[in-house]
Design brief:
The protein is built from two helices and 18 strands. Strands 2, 6, 7, 8, 9, 10, 11 and 12 form an eight-stranded antiparallel beta sheet that branches. Strands 13-14-15-18-17-16 form a six-stranded antiparallel barrel.
C-alpha cells in the first residue's frame, strides 16, 4: 500500500496537525496549511464504554501553545510522572492533566504543569522515538480511581507480542466521520501483528524495532483514532496490567479502514524512562 499516510492521532481543538505521507520506502511531510479538514480525525473507533476505575492510570492531556489546544492521552507511571507520545509534548508549553474519571470534562483531579522531557531522537515525520514524559507539580495520591500502570520489566524487550490481545483506551473520536472527541473513556481489543507485516503498509523507515503495530481483534474496524495519541496499550499479566505500548499513529486512509495502527514499544525505552524519572525498572 505504498502512498498510504501516517497520521499523528492527537486531537486538534483549535489548530490543525501536520500530516506525514508514508510510502513503502519514503516519507514526505505535508505542510500544515495544505492539510484538508477531512484529515482531522480522532478517538477509539467502535469501542466499548469503560467502567469507572477500569483504567485508573488513564489521564487526559490538554496541551497548549498560545491559543492552540490539543487533546492527547497519557498514563500515570509514578506519583509524579506521566508517559505520553512525543508529538503530544514537543511543540507545547503547558499541560493540563485530568485524572481518575471516565468523563473527560469531569476529572477527579486536575493538575497543570510545564515540565516535559521529549526523547532527543524523536522524528516528527516518521514518528520514530515518539515518547515523552511529563512531570507533575506534586505527587498524586493513589486510590481506586487513580493509580499507576505497571511498566514492563526489562525482559519484555525480547518479546514481540505477536498475536497477543491488547487493550487500548482513550477519549479520541469514535469514527472517521466524527467532528469531536469523546466525552467518555472508551477502550478496544486489538491484536498485535508482526513488524514485517506492518512494514508492507508504512515502510521500514517508519516501522522500527522500537515500533509495534496492531489491528482489530474481532473486526477490521476496531482501532484508535485522533485524540488517543499518547495513551496506553496494556496487556494482562497475572492479576495486573502492563503497559507495552504508547499510541502513536494511524493510516491517513482513515481509522476504520483496517490499516494497522502504530505504537511505541515501551520496553525499548525503559532505560531512557528510568533515567528521566528515577523509576526503578523490574529485571
Amino acid at each position: 500500500m505504498s502512498g498510504s499516510m501516517i497520521l499523528k492521532i492527537s486531537s486538534v481543538l483549535l489548530s490543525v496537525l501536520s500530516l506525514a505521507i508514508a510510502a513503502t520506502h519514503d516519507v514526505v511531510p505535508i505542510p500544515r496549511k495544505n492539510v484538508p479538514d477531512r484529515h482531522v480525525l480522532s478517538k477509539i473507533v467502535n469501542g466499548r464504554q469503560a467502567e469507572p476505575n477500569q483504567f485508573p492510570w488513564q489521564v487526559s492531556i490538554r496541551a497548549t501553545l498560545g491559543n492552540s489546544v490539543t487533546v492527547c492521552g497519557g498514563s500515570l507511571i509514578a506519583p509524579e510522572w506521566i508517559l505520553t507520545a512525543a508529538h503530544c509534548a514537543k511543540d507545547y508549553t503547558g499541560f493540563q492533566i485530568g485524572f481518575g474519571s471516565i468523563h473527560l470534562n469531569v476529572p477527579r483531579l486536575t493538575m497543570s504543569t510545564v515540565t516535559k522531557v521529549v526523547h532527543p531522537n524523536f522524528d516528527p515525520v516518521r514518528l520514530n522515538n515518539d515518547v515523552a514524559v511529563i512531570k507533575l507539580p506534586s505527587r498524586v495520591s493513589f486510590s481506586n480511581e487513580i493509580s499507576a500502570v505497571r511498566l514492563p520489566p526489562l525482559s519484555y524487550s525480547r518479546r514481540t507480542f505477536q498475536y497477543t490481545l491488547a487493550l487500548v483506551s482513550g477519549f479520541g473520536r469514535t469514527s472517521d466521520a466524527s467532528q469531536s472527541i469523546s466525552s467518555t473513556l472508551k477502550y478496544e481489543n486489538l491484536k498485535i501483528i508482526s513488524n514485517a507485516e506492518c512494514s508492507t503498509v508504512y515502510g521500514s523507515s517508519v516501522i522500527l524495532n522500537s515500533t509495534m503495530c496492531a489491528i482489530g481483534y474481532e473486526r477490521n474496524n476496531q482501532n484508535v483514532c485522533q485524540g488517543d495519541s499518547g495513551g496506553p496499550m496494556v496487556v494482562k499479566d497475572n492479576d495486573s496490567y502492563v503497559q507495552i505500548g504508547i499510541v502513536s499513529f494511524v493510516s491517513n486512509r482513515g481509522c476504520s479502514t483496517g490499516d494497522p495502527s502504530g505504537y511505541i514499544r515501551t520496553a525499548s525505552f525503559l532505560p531512557w524512562i528510568a533515567e528521566q524519572t528515577g523509576i526503578r525498572i523490574e529485571p
